[in-house]
Write a structure and sequence with these properties.
The complex is a heterodimer of chains A (about 325) and B (about 200). Chain A has about 325 residues and is of the alpha+beta class. Chain A has six helices and eleven strands. In chain A, strands 5, 6, 7, 8, 9, 10 and 11 form a seven-stranded mixed beta sheet that branches. A two-stranded antiparallel sheet of chain A has the order 1-2. In chain A, helix 4 packs antiparallel against helix 5 and helix 5 crosses helix 6. By secondary structure, chain B is of the alpha+beta class. Chain B has two domains: about 40 residues, no CATH class; about 150 residues, no CATH class. Chain B contains three helices and ten strands; from the N terminus they run E-E-E-E-E-E-H-E-H-E-H-E-E. Chain B starts with a strand and ends with a strand. The chains are: A alpha+beta (about 325), B alpha+beta (about 200). At the A-B interface, strand 3, strand 4, strand 6, strand 7 and strand 8 of A face strand 1, helix 2, helix 3 and strand 9 of B. Strand 4 of chain A pairs antiparallel with strand 1 of chain B, so a sheet runs across the interface.
Chain lengths: ~325, ~200
């Protein structure tokens, strides 16, 4: 964001524009180099809203038709409200430079059935600029925590007409969070399972604040309320909640339990006649996994959730099944 | 927020520039200063162009770190400590190394190319007193950031040699920092050394 109110060049008195986050300025009138003392703030950008109400509603209706949502949602869904807001995000670029060295162990069996473990040395350079965007306020029930798109026309023209959420998280917290995440991502990218040496430098390169236009659509289906959010720049649906379809749930339960039961039973029957217990256990485990997925779909399939919701259960059903089956890792 | 005019800390002449450069050069008394937590005059070198390099000339800034390096322990699978030994010489475990860090805006691959290239092939150059009105690429990397990146350069030089680095216990102390303006010539394939 350029600020010019009340700031004048100390050499010629001309009005000067200060880009937030920058300390060095050049007076456009006398050419003097200037220095902004104190906290220069953060470069702030707002993206122009490129969508209108009709386009947002069309995008929402298209989203209703996708996936396992209620088939009659287009008929029974009733629009309650549709409005744009500006959400604040921190956008950071963090440079990670370093080396992570260590080894990977690979175990194999020889012809006699003896296990051997081979240690493979690894040295991996990590040199990357990591870009992150994190929401800078409490998003409430919107299901948005990061930006999928970071392009758009920068403009504050809509700032007066569109309600704007203020930042409630600090710049320092965002920088520190980005540094931690960049280190985690760098370690993951390096892929060294057993680390014997690590020297990594993390430098925050830039931070800026982005005000991003998001349309909120609230609608009802039967007696229940649902919502969706639409990207004000790209027009894509970012997040939402929608009713599931009881038919899909019934089919899933019928098909899943049948298939899971058959596979588990087949594993037991075939495995009982074999010296190798792998078939028996394998069949039972696969059957249980299918039953677990079926259960998760039945339990949570009444509502389809997309986006960054805390209570999003369908995002990784296998993980949830692992928890519900007593910590079994799948 | 308060805005002040940048003046040379030695002769008090205003600094005029059309670009946003974190290194402020006074063409009046040939003093360079930075504002990293205070107004600090810094040492700097301007390398002389080769008389044959007449075309599109540009000065590129590097932070040159004079470092004292000490290897306490090292381990490499299938190789040996090679590169650092070349700098330290005579099988010694300690010595001095000049590390060059590009001070302008670079992406990660450019950064590695310039930093490793100049540190491995230490440039020899004659000095001159001014920039002779030749374009300077703005400095955007602070002295502190350059110092932080020194470890990466030193470990990279070792890790990229034959063998797989497994462990390196070392100490690296930056004794002196200096901004060095190296001469380059813009060409169709990027920058060519102008020394």
């Amino acid at each position: 964001m350029s600020l010019s109110v009340g700031l004048n060049c100390p050499a010629c008195g001309g009005a000067i524009k200060v880009n937030e986050g920058e300390h060095v300025l050049n007076c456009q009138y006398c050419g003097s180099t200037l220095w902004a003392e104190g906290d220069a703030g953060v470069l702030t950008v707002a993206y122009k809203n490129m969508q209108d109400r009709d386009g947002v509603l069309r995008a929402t209706e298209q989203w209703w038709r996708k996936g396992l949502k209620a088939r009659d949602l287009r008929k029974k869904g009733r629009l309650l409200e549709c409005y744009p807001i500006y959400l604040p995000f921190w956008s950071t670029v963090t440079r990670v430079a370093g080396w992570i060295c260590g080894y990977e162990e690979r175990t194999y069996q020889d012809r006699d059935g003896h296990s051997h473990t081979e240690r493979i040395p690894k040295e991996e350079m990590v040199l990357n600029d990591y870009n992150y965007t994190n929401i800078a306020c409490d998003p409430g029930d919107l299901g948005i925590k990061r930006l999928r798109n970071i392009g758009g026309e920068a403009s504050f023209a809509d700032f007066e007409s569109i309600p704007t959420f203020e930042s409630t998280t600090s710049k320092d917290d965002s920088v520190n969070g980005s540094k931690e995440k960049a280190l985690q991502d760098a370690r993951r990218d390096a892929g060294v399972p057993h680390v014997t040496f690590e020297k990594v430098t993390i430098i925050p390169k830039s931070i800026s604040q982005i005000y991003y236009p998001v349309w909120v659509v609230r609608y009802s289906y039967g007696e229940r309320m649902y919502m969706a959010t639409v990207d004000g720049v790209t027009g894509n649906v970012l997040s939402g909640r929608a009713p599931g379809d009881p038919l899909y749930q019934s089919l899933a339960v019928t098909g899943g339990t049948s298939l899971g039961g058959l596979i588990a039973a087949a594993g037991l029957i075939v495995g009982a006649g074999s010296d190798d217990g792998t078939i028996m256990f394998g069949g039972v485990i696969v059957g249980l996994v299918i039953l677990g997925v079926t259960y998760m779909f039945f339990r949570h399939g009444s509502e389809i959730i997309e986006g960054d919701f805390e209570d999003k259960k369908m995002k990784n059903p296998l993980k949830d099944i692992g928890i519900e089956l007593g910590g079994l890792r799948i | 927020m308060k805005v002040v005019q940048i003046k040379c800390p030695r002769c008090q002449q205003p600094i005029n520039s059309k670009v946003k450069d974190l290194a402020f050069y006074c063409s009046h008394c040939r003093t360079m200063h930075v504002r990293d937590g205070g107004v600090n005059v810094i040492d700097f070198d301007i390398a002389e162009f080769n008389p044959g390099a007449q075309q599109d000339r540009v000065y590129m800034p590097f932070w040159r770190l004079f470092t004292n390096f000490n290897i306490n322990q090292s381990k490499s699978a299938g190789g040996a400590i090679y590169k650092l030994g070349k700098f330290l010489g005579g099988g010694s475990n300690s010595g001095n190394v000049f590390i060059y860090i590009p001070a302008w805006e670079t992406n990660v691959s450019e950064f590695k190319h310039w930093a490793i290239g100049l540190t491995e092939a230490q440039p020899m150059y004659s000095l001159r007193n001014d920039f002779n009105n030749i374009e300077r690429t703005p400095t955007v990397v602070t002295r502190e950031e350059a110092t932080q990146m020194a470890d990466f350069v030193i470990v990279t030089m070792e890790a990229e040699k034959p063998g797989t680095l497994q462990y390196l216990d070392y100490s690296l102390n930056v004794q002196d920092t200096r901004l060095v303006y190296m001469p380059y010539v813009r060409g169709q394939n990027g920058f060519a050394p102008g020394l």
